[in-house]
Structures are given as structure tokens and as C-alpha cells.
Amino acid sequence: MVLLHSEKKGLGTPAPDFALTGVDGQKYSLARFKDKNALVVLFICNHCPYVKAVEDRILQIARDYAAKSVQLVGICSNDPTDYPEDLPENLRKRWKDKDYRFPYLIDEGQDAARAYGAVCTPDIFVYDKNRRLAYHGRLDDSWQDPKKVTRQDLRIAIDMLLAGKKPSSDQIPSMGCSIKWKKP
Length: 184
Prior knowledge:
alpha+beta; Glutaredoxin
């Protein structure tokens, strides 16, 4: 597995639209979440040890902010050819077993990952009410051990947006496994 860090994106850039099917069989696009004050787009997958290590924290964030007009959306852009854990049926099983409370979308053509500039899992993008990029960075300061977390960067960014403020532009990249691109 190749360890990568998310690539810096211009804050204030608009969220790329997408038209993807979720593991629940429903169709999703940006417009589906237009009533939310913040949108957190997470490029995740089932097989990555970095995602597995932070998955419960992500699920807790979804629960904690559900009533606060914050929408999380997971997108799996991996080619599952060499990673069967990332096959759609396995994504659906994990989504159900772990009680994800947000849509988990399948980016089969990998167009969403390219449009967002996602390079790793997890790769986290937070957009404000106007769907302008406000945060692109790590979840917290200890991906490996939740007991060692001293700074919850994603929560801080979301709280700033909900308070009508801009998150700091000093953002530490996320890190994780490379997105598994389809072979040409």
C-alpha cells in the first residue's frame, strides 16, 4: 500500500457536482444536500487500514452533527479488482453492519475522485452552505490511537462553519492509502 497525503486545494473553490449511486441503490448529487449548512465529503473505502482506524470516529461525527445541519457523504472511488473488500456488495455490507448514518456512494468511473482531486483514503473535504471549500485536511492528530487525540481538526472546522466563521487556512493534510486507480 502506498501512503499519500492529501494535496492542498484552493479554499473557496466550489464543490464539484456528482451523480453517483449509493450502496442503498439511491441516486445522489450535490443538490440532494442543498438544505445543509455544511457538507463533508469523505473519500473512504473498506480495505484501507487508515480508514479502518478512524471509521468509528467518523461515524460518531455523523451522529453528533446530524441534528446540526451537517451532512456527511462517503465516496469509494477505488477499483476493486485487486481489493475485493471494496466491491459494492462489501461496501453495502459494511455500511449496514457499522450503521453508517450517511450515504456511501460508489464512484465506479472514478470521475468524482478526479473532480475533487482526491488522492488518498481518507481524503476529507468540507464545504460551507454555498458549497465553497472551507476545509481540506486531517480528521484529528492521532489517526492510529483515538486515546491520543489532542486536536480534532475536522470537528473544529465544522464548528467554525456552524458559528458563521471560516476555519483556519492552516490545515494539515490527511494521510492514507492511495486511491486504487483503474489500470489503463
